Amino acid sequence: MDPYPNDEGTTTKDYIIIETKHRLYLVEKLDKDTNLRREYSFSSTQQIAKQFKDAWSKRPFQYSGAINLDVAFVLIDILSDILHIDDRRDKIRMLDPSCGSGTFLALALKAWGDQVDVEAVGIDLNIKCAEGTIQNLMYICTNATAQAEEEDNAWTLTVEESKATIHAEDSVQLPTFISDKFDCAVANLPWNRNTFEYNEGNNTIECTNSGILEATAVTLKPCSPFIVVSGRDNEQNELGSSSNTRNCLEKLGFHIVGEATIPPKGFALPSSSKKTGGKKKKGVLSRTSDCLITVAISPQR
Prior knowledge:
The protein has helices at about 45-55, 70-85, 105-110, 125-140, 175, 210-220, 240-250; strands at about 15-20, 25-30, 90-95, 120-125, 150, 155-160, 160-165, 185-190, 200, 205, 225-230, 255-260, 290-295. With about 300 residues, the chain is α/β, with parallel strands linked by helices. The longest helix is centred in the first third of the chain and has 15 residues, at about 70-85.
């Protein structure tokens, strides 16, 4: 994967996304003549993984649409690699335009906060999610130096030199209430509205999730990573909404680094007797709630 394909003089690395039934792995691809191998998955979050999982499972605000935690670990780790977190000393500004219960924001604060100052911004149209996210961040960030302050449907929490701000707003209108640019973004799009439609006449993006992607694109710095999690459109479309996510991002000028499905494409569990009237049908497989991950880099402009 070359996140900066047109950047001359930069050192690039190749990576392979490996899908299993249980996890997504990002593995560095080495030259064939080397005997060294390095698994990259969970590299920066391994130390906090168990402690975070135990604490996060008891968070005060639980949300049914929350991202699978193992997947969230992988995505934050991918961002860590692209951003070179281990080598950075400047502040990192991260955006989650559909923050839900705040999983990505909490992970970024916990995984990166000891190395760099983090400014995490979350947005959710559901005010209960916005309020719940700040409650969860106050719970997980036990070293918070100030109580959350509310102003104009926005809550700010200070955690040592880092901070998190949560807005109860429509992400499609993001550029109207946030002017600063972000170093990275990650979004678990609302699955129940995962439909992408275009006005071919003027390329206007009309549906909610496409609007979220367009608004996020405007607020990203050039050559910044954006990871999108989306659901399958339907059972007939093999690539599901991943192809629609790709189309939308490419129309916005993004370079697509890679895509993967969780669980792997085509994986399904045998149907249970409960769903077949007490009789198991031989060879019948039930649908799984696949999600699709698209890793992209914003245009250089």
